[in-house]
Specification:
The protein is of the alpha+beta class and 157 residues long. The chain has one domain (3-156): Hypothetical protein apc22750. Chain B (Translation Initiation Factor IF3, 2-Layer Sandwich). The protein has 3 helices and 4 strands. Strand 3 (121-133) and strand 4 form a beta hairpin. Helix 1 (3-42) runs parallel beside helix 3 (93-116). The longest helix is centred in the first third of the chain and has 40 residues, at 3-42.
């Protein structure tokens, strides 16, 4: 093999690996989003609000604190795309999907806990977000989201 051919093959290997990582990450993300869609439809009958006060015509019983926590890790393609985006500036779309998935997963887990407690509403919902940094900045990490609220059985209204 000539020197030029070996340089071209050597340069193509990282591109192929990056493409494989992208495709695997994309498939995993699509699968997670489909599962979240199903879970959210299944739990849609539970009323959820960030308000502090219930409507005047509602009566609440069996109050419980419910929580849901989700940690979603970055993949190497998202880190690579974000580092390129940081060079030119602007929104980092790859990380926005990461935060959105973690938030939805935390809410689903909170609502499942509410359903298990026999609740039909979760009130005063709050969402906390934290980033998790890996050993070397920009190399790995993820996002942690915690959703919590007061689950209750409501009647009236």
């Amino acid at each position: 093999m000539s020197e030029t051919a070996s340089v071209l093959v050597g340069a193509g290997v990282p591109v192929i690996l990056l493409l494989i990582v992208y495709l695997i990450g994309r498939a995993a993300e699509s699968s997670h989003l489909a599962r979240l869609d199903n879970d959210e439809r299944e739990l849609a009958d539970i009323v959820m609000s960030d308000l502090k006060r219930l409507p005047d015509n509602w009566r609440a019983t069996d109050l419980h604190l419910v929580t849901g926590v989700a940690v979603i890790a970055t993949d190497y393609f998202k880190v690579f795309a974000a580092s390129l985006r940081n060079i030119v500036g602007g929104r980092v779309w790859s990380f926005e999907t990461l935060v959105s998935r973690a938030r939805r997963e935390a809410i689903v887990r909170m609502l499942r806990e509410a359903r298990d407690a026999g609740a039909n509403a979760v009130w005063t919902v709050r969402i906390e977000t934290a980033t998790i940094q890996g050993k070397r900045q920009g190399k790995s990490g993820g996002v942690e989201v915690m959703a919590y609220g007061t689950a209750m059985k409501v009647t009236g209204g």
